[in-house]
Amino acid sequence: MTNEQIIAAVDVEWIAARTHELVEVFSVTMAETEVCGVYEGMMRDIGLEVDVREVSPGRNNLYAKLSGAGDGPALMLNGHLDTIPVGNCPPCYREGNRIYGRGATDMKGGMAAALAAVKAIKESGVQLQGDLWLTAVVGHEEPEAKKDGPRALITDLNNQRVSADRILIVEGRDALWVMSMGSMVFTIVLESSEGGKHTQYVPFADNPLRYVGELIQRIYQFQIELDGGSLHPLAGAERIDLGMVSGGDYFNRTPLSCTLTGTRRWLPGRNAEQVLAELQALLEPIATAGNLALRVEMEHQREPFETSAEDGAVQAVRRAHGVVVGADAEFVGLRIVGDANLYVHGSGVATFYYGPSNETAHGIWNGWKSSACNRRRRSMCWQRLIIAVVPKERRYMQSVVVYDGECRFCLWSVRRIQKMDQRRQFAYVPRQAPGLEEKYPFLASSDFNTGMRLIADTDRIYVGADAVYQIYRRMPPFHWVAWLYRVPVLQSVFRFGYAVIAKYRYLLGAVPCDTSACDLSFGDRQAIEERRESA
Q: Is the CB of residue 82 less than 8 Å from the CB of residue 138?
């Protein structure tokens, strides 16, 4: 069995087409009938036998197995087919190497890539040692479904309708997401015998709202205690947050009850009941002091999960990531919860995530005046998920920043950008680098007095201030500032200012450029300074 056999069977354009086809289908939670049919057809088209498992009328989980030799562990690739509400998101379309539309990242791109992985293995003729399962569920996103699709899969795992030794959910960042905190939504209710009275006749010290303030202060102090307590190496400190506070029905009448609602997230090692009891005990003294009845309730609770970074399946994906990306995979733990929290505790099967990236899931893309539109801005969401089978040379190129290596100010500026580029989205090449014009012939006629160039991963070329805008809009946390450039008046100001700096850049300092001074890693800073002084 060789990786080359599987790599040769990968069809990147097939993945793009399937992603586009899936994103075109409306599939908000509870309305997944059509997308289930489409994905089932795709599974059958590559020769899989599909077990259609009804969750509710017209809404089906889909299971398919690629049988192995029988003596190896079983791996399940899993994901959901439903999306959050579409809102005013425009119809799906493709532009260069990007696919736009609700669900492109979360998570139809991942589901298309998982299907392509199974297809590549089938067409390569490779015989796996263990079974490979591909499972698609409904009912993930919206609360009204009550996670009915994932819970149905848990039932089927427990009764052996399907089987797995490990579950890999093809969602999230292109990193190994191996841990999530537990989570609950809590509601605190304070009730008072002094409620419903004219405030003029109730001392302020006895007003229930006074104790709401003390309660909020105690929750704040508790967060400080959590910050100084146990820290998880991947996810950090536990959290308690408030989102809603309500009380009273009239401006001069004391409230009968006051309600506070928030979220609590906790580390592995405790369960939801223990965390709820802790919160009750934390607030009880305040309620007692105010002669208030206290009730603390929880809903939407999920227990934490953690799969060892040394787990065999996790390490296999880590090695594959290294082969394709050329760097070690990052291990992450998050405070948010997902289906892995359910699978681990419901079926006992160790679970982890590896996806095509997730920075735009559920998010608002500022290019649209409407509400959230799920956009894949860095590259197609299907491009990097088939990490064990996509060859490095077939991945779309990294965006390249081309700058003037003889300009000291330019070197300083690019160093700053590189430092902020924590996701390593860009390569940095001086325009004087040997062989650059052979690789990018269009640069031969470029006038660099107009500024740097950004050769984007879509083969688009951005110049000067436009290049700076494109760079910063791709780098959190600076992307929120980049929208200023889209304001016409400010854009003109930025372009004029950049043009002046570019024209007179050598007045800010120059340095001779040779293959070491203009090294992609910027060479040795001291050596560069010595060259400048000798010049």
A: yes
Element (H, E) at 415: helix 408-420
CB 457 within 8 A of CB 396: yes
> In degrees, to the nearest 5, what angle opens at C-alpha 227 toward C-alphas 223 and 232?
125
Q: How far apart are CA 280 and CA 99, in angstroms?
A: 48
Asked whether residue 349 falls in the same domain as residue 445, the answer is: no
Same structural domain, 173 and 237: no
Same structural domain for residues 404 and 387?
no
Closest Cα to residue 80, out of 142, 15, 165?
Answer: 142
| Residue 41 shares a structural domain with residue 99 | yes
Encoded tokens for 147: 């996670």
User: Are 366 and 313 members of one domain?
Assistant: yes
What's at 429, amino acid-wise?
Answer: V
CATH assignment of the domain containing 203: 3.30.70.360
Q: Are residues 389 and 422 in the same domain?
A: no
Is 406 found in the same domain as 516? yes
- Going from the C-alpha of 85 to that of each of 103, 130, 374, the distances in angstroms are 10, 38, 10
The single residue listed with the structure tokens 């603390």 is 296
Task: Name the residue range of residue 498's domain.
Answer: 399-534
No. of H helices and E strands in the chain? 15, 19
User: Does residue 69 register a pLDDT over 70?
Assistant: yes
pTM: 0.67
pLDDT value at residue 375: 31
pLDDT in tens, 269-299: 999 999 999 999 999 999 999 999 999 999 9
Tokens standing for 336?
């948010």
- The span from the CA of 458 to the CA of 271, in Å, is 47
Of 394, 420, 445, the domain-final residue: 394
Q: What is the 3-state secondary structure (H, E, C) of 107-142?
A: HHHHHHHHHHHHHHHHHHCCCCCCCEEEEEECCCCC
Q: Taking a C-beta distance cutoff of 8 angstroms, is the pair 462, 456 a contact?
A: yes
Helices 12-23 & 109-124 angle (0-180, nearest 10): 140
Looking at the structure, do residues 146 and 206 belong to the same domain, yes or no?
Answer: no
322: pLDDT confidence band, cut at 50, 70 and 90?
confident
Q: Number of structural domains, the chain?
A: 3
Residue that finishes a domain, picked among 302, 336, 364: 302
Please check the confidence at residue 444 and state whether its pLDDT lies above 70. no
